[in-house]
Amino acid sequence: MHADRRRAESFGGQADRYDRSRPTYPDALFDTVLGPTPQGIQVLDVGCGTGIAARAMTAQGAHVVGVEIDPRMAEIARRYQIEVEVGRFEDWDPDGRTFDLLTAGQAWHWVEPLAGAQKAAQLLRPGGRLALFWNIGDPPADLSAALDGVYSAIAPGADNYSVLLGYSRHERYPDHVEAIGRTAAFSDPVLEYFGWERTYTREEWLDQLPTHSDHAALDPDTRDGLLDMVGEAIDRFGGRFDMHYETLLIRADRAG
What we know:
By secondary structure, the protein is α/β, with parallel strands linked by helices. It has one domain: Vaccinia Virus protein VP39 (Rossmann fold). It has helices at 5-8, 15-21, 27-34, 52-59, 71-79, 113-123, 141-154, 173-182, 202-208, 213-216, 220-236, and strands at 42-46, 63-68, 83-86, 99-105, 124-138, 190-201, 240-253. A seven-stranded mixed β-sheet has the order 3-2-1-4-5-7-6. α4 (52-59) links the parallel β1 and β2 (63-68). α6 crosses α8.
């Protein structure tokens, strides 16, 4: 997916919506990523977006520097007092800095796997940690079946790689795990899952959908029709639903 730069760089047009509608991550994830003494940890957050993960880590006492390709997303992160530098990670100049932790929340699939892993190895101090994570959605089975029908009718293929709807649980991650191993600079990658729940109203779910690149890439008429039909499907199930999320974490430690 990293080669599809149109999709990779499509988020800025929905920056405010992205910030208000995208979910955060469970506390247990950050407990694992930051460890028992997060105070003062130097973190580089790749593809920091509007700072959703960066804010959670800052709240625990970490010092976070974000790298974000879209200046509109970066500007919102700065409103939350997150230090952000604009650029594509593979080309970004760290100016001699190194870090204790490199994170990427919902973003590493836009980074070329081997180049990203190699650069991460250069930026992490010995014993530092690489932590890549994604929220993977799993709607209730009956609603999921209804949504399958909607997507098949209105936008076939739009959900093929959607972490939002649970269809890409494993498709893209082996490349990144393999790339981390190919650097010979990290411990064997470990995969962990953190389950949690969030209730969505019809309006909240429809607000979030256009912030995902697979939906943003649709032509406006198709997207509008899809949103109408998704909304009608949710209405048939009472106008709200409980989404089960699993946050996948891929972590590996920099060799000493």
